[in-house]
Amino acid sequence: MHQTKPTRAVIFANGTLGDPQAALKNIHPGDLIIAADGGGKHCQALGITPDLLVGDMDSLDADTIDRFASAGTEVIRYPARKDYTDLELALIHAQERGIQEISILAALGQRWDQTLANLLLPAEKNFASSLHIRLVDGSQEIQLVESGKLITLHGVPGDTVSFIPLGGDACGITTEGLEYPLLSENLVFGSTRGISNVLIESMASVRVSEGLLLCVIIHTSQIDEGLKG
Question: First-to-last CA distance in the chain?
Fold first, then answer.
């Protein structure tokens, strides 16, 4: 049980968890742990008991669900015929509990429709207004930069940073701490100009005046460590 009300959550989705040990590094003491249906398999493999298990439970067997419930997991079951994916339902429950920051693990996978929908979930207006959401996949993390918001990026010099405009052109983009700075410039929807920028400091920032940016950070130092290992 949490002694204080958590403001941060980690959600396990039912996609591919490429680097389980890296995933564990995203979990901090006091985090609210949520399994979105089949995300419970990842929790089970990592020896984690989620605080919440949310979904229609079509990806978990009854024994696993019972074990989680017996260990104290709150199970919130939905009918199979529903209007939202299990991951969106998990985000809704996190938001209702006053969560402000969320890391989503295993959100990407073999189904392109699910992957694309998961990538765009942080742009849903109710989430965008109150949540800071990152999708984490091993050494890579993804977040959205909305108009009028300043986003801080963390890493080490040499990490790759890419900006991809969504839903139209992104205008008035200003960055700091990157090798190829943008000073109130535009990125055109469908263009690849924003791909493969580079961190030159441990912290950088990006702001967009109008439009929406998908920001991808590839922590190349983590990849190098993995190759050495």
Answer: 36
